[in-house]
Design goal:
The chain is an alpha+beta fold and about 700 residues long. Helix content is about 30%, strand content about 15%. The strands form 7 sheets. Strands 9, 10, 11, 12, 13, 14, 15, 18, 19 and 23 form a 10-stranded mixed sheet that branches. The protein has a 5-stranded antiparallel sheet with strand order 20-21-22-24-25. It has a 4-stranded antiparallel sheet with strand order 6-7-3-8. The radius of gyration is 27 Å and the shape is globular. The structure holds S-adenosylmethionine.
Length: about 700
Amino acid sequence: MGRRGRYYEQTRSRDAGGWREIPKENAEFEEYYRGQNIVPQSEWYTFYDKLKDTLPVTFRITGTSHHDALQIRDTLVNEYVPFLKDIIWEGEEVEPPTRLPWYPEGLAWQITVGKSVIRKSKPFARFQRFLVVETDVGNISRQEAVSMIPPLLLDVQPHHAVIDLCAAPGSKTAQLIEAVHAVPEPTGIVVANDSDHKRSHMLIHQVKRLNSPNLVVTNHDAQLFPRIRIDNESDSYLRYDRVLCDVPCSGDGTVRKNINVWRDWSIHNALSIHQTQINILNRGLHLLKPGGKLVYSTCSFNPIENEAVVAHVVRMWRGKVRIVDCTDSLPGLVRRKGMTSWKVMGKDRQWKESAQDGIPASCFVQGDEAELGLENCMRVYPHDQNTGGFFITLIEKATEAGDGAPSGTLKRKAQVEHDSGDLEQANSDKRVKPESDPVATLPEPTSQQTAVAQTQLLPPKKKERLPRDANEEPFKFLPTNHPAIENCWTFYSIADDFPRSSLLVRNATGEPVRTIYYVHPRLQPVISLNDTKVKFIHAGIKLFAYQKTLEGTCPWRVQSEGMAVLYRHIARKPGDSVRVVRCTLDTLRTLCDVTFPKFNELTDKEFLDQLLALTEGCVFLEVDPGTGEKPIVFPMWRGRGSVNLMLPKQDTAELLLRVFKVENVGNDVSYGKKMADTPMTETTNTPAYTESEAPSSAEQTETELVVYGATP
Ligand SMILES: C[S@@+](CC[C@H](N)C(=O)[O-])C[C@H]1O[C@@H](n2cnc3c(N)ncnc32)[C@H](O)[C@@H]1O
C-alpha cells in the first residue's frame, strides 16, 4: 500500500513578474555533479530524483531544561504517537511521526504527512495542536535534520567557551547554548557572530527564548573576527574550546526546500565563495585552543566548497590539526566518506587541469588528499535518509600545537598558492610570531582590511543597517553598591553570593533608567574590556524593569527571563522577608483559568495567608508538582487586592495542555499552516498582563518568555 499525503510542496517562486512554476531541472548542475562522481553512476538517478522530492518536516524537542525536554518527549511518545499509527486516509496508510534514529535521546522527529491530513484527521489535528502549543513557547524548534549534526559533533560541555562564527539565523547556535546549559549553572559562554546585521537580529530573536546570560552576539566579518581581551593587566585573549564554522555556501544541498536553487544554480556560486570559506576556516583555527575542536560545515554538495577548502587549510596547519574520524559518532546516521579526488570546472563549463582563469590552485587536487585524512569528512546525501544534503568535518587542534599558527614553510607555500595574494597573506605576514599567543599576535583588522575583505572576497552585497534602537545602545556595568541594586537586593532578599558586578544597563549614561540586565560573570570582562573594538549587539537577560507606579515600595519589577537566575540566589535565612509563596497544583490551575482573581475569591486559605503577609509587587510562586520532584517556579504578581500569574498566554496554554491535559487550547492556530508557511526563525510571544493593575503597557512586551519549568 502506498503512503498517503504529500507534505507541503513548493513548486513556485515569486519574482518581479509574479509567481512562476520552477522546473526541477538544471542541465549544468547535472553535468557538473555527474562529472564529479559525487555518487556512483549507478546511483545517480536515485540521488537526482530525491532532490526533486519535498523535504519532510523535522523538529527538535528543546524544553527550557533538559529535564523538561525529556518530559515533552515522553508526552509525545506516550500520549500522541500511539494514536497516529495505522491511520488510513483516503484509502492509503499515513506515515506516523518517526524519530531521527541518530539524534540522542529521541529528541528529534520527522513528519511526512500532508497538510490536508494534518488538518482533517482528528488524531493528527490533536497532534498538530500539541506541536503548535509547544512550538509557541520554544519547547519545540523546527530545524532541518542535517543542520542538527554540526553542534552534536562538537560535543560542547557546560564549561566551554564556544564561538559560532557564521551563526544567523541561529538554529545551530540554539543547540550550542542548550549544550552549555545542560547543567543548572554552567560556566561556559557562547559567542554567536554573523556579518549580516539584519540576520544577526533574526538570530537574537531566535535564541532569546533560551534566556541565556551566557550568550553574547557580535556582528563581524568572520574572516577578521577580532581578538577579545579577557584581562586588563596582561595580554590575554579569549580562545575557544569549540568553534563552529557553518560557512556561507552555494547552498545546493538545500534544493529540496529551496526550489530557487534549480533556477539559480551555477558553478560560479561555488568558485566565488571558496576563498571566503578558506579565510573563515583559517580564522576559526586561530581562535581555537590547543586541544579544542572545530566543525567546518556547508549545505553544499560541491567539493570546491568542501574538501578543497578543508584540504587547503589543513595543509597550511599540517601537523597542528587533524581531521577526526567520526565513524563511531551518531550511530544510525548514514553518511558517505569525504572525497579525495575531484575536478574543477570553470565558468565556461570546461574542466580545468590547473589554476587558470582566476581559479586559485587551492581548488585543485594536489595528490596528498588521502594523507590529509579527507575521507574522514562526512557527506550526507538526501537519498540515504530522506534529508537535505550536508557536508561536515570535525577538526581537532593538537594539544602540543604550540602557538597554533600555521608553520612558516607551509604558510609561505600556501601564500604562493593564493593567486589573489590577498588579505590572507597580509594577515599571515603579521600573524605568525612563534613564542607568543597566536590570538594575541593576530592583527586587529584595520578598516582598510575590512574593506578589502568585503570588496575582494565576498560577493558585493548591499549592507542593510537596521535603525539604531535600544538594542544598539552601549553596555555599561553598574557599580555593585548602586542604590537601585541595594533596593532590589533588600526587597527581594537576594543573597550575597549573587555576582552583582555582572549587572548592567544599556544606555550611554550608565544609569539604570528602565531595565537592569545580567550577564554571566565570565562575560563581564569580555564586554567591558572590548566594547570599543568588538561590535556587541546582544548580551544579557533582563532581570528588573522599572515601574513608576510602584514608587514607595520597590519600583524594580522582576522580569520573567531573569526569574530562574534570581530564584537560585534568594536568601533564606530566618528573618529574611522572602518573596516566595507556595501552592498546590489545584491553585495553580485556578490561576491559569482566572486572570487577577480577587483575594476574596481565593479558596486556598494557606495560599491567601502567604499573599497577605507580603507587600505589593512580584513574588516567586513555588508549585509542588505532587510527584516528589522539585517545585516548579513561576513569576506572580501580588496586587493590592488580587493576584496574577505572570505568564504569556502561550505559556499558560502549554501549562494547561501538558500539566492539566486541557486539550481545547491552541485551537485557533493551524500547525499545518505554521509549519509550512512560517519561517524557521519565527517565534511569537504575547504579554503576560491583561488587567489594569498590571505594569504599564509600554513594558508589557518585556515579559516574553517562559520561566516555569526551570526547576531550581
Ligand atoms: C549557512 S548560514 C549559517 C546558518 C546558521 N549557522 C544556522 O544554523 O542557523 C551562513 C551565514 O554566514 C553569514 N556570513 C556570510 N559571510 C560571512 C562572513 N564573512 N562572516 C560572518 N558571517 C558571514 C551569513 O549572513 C549567513 O547568516
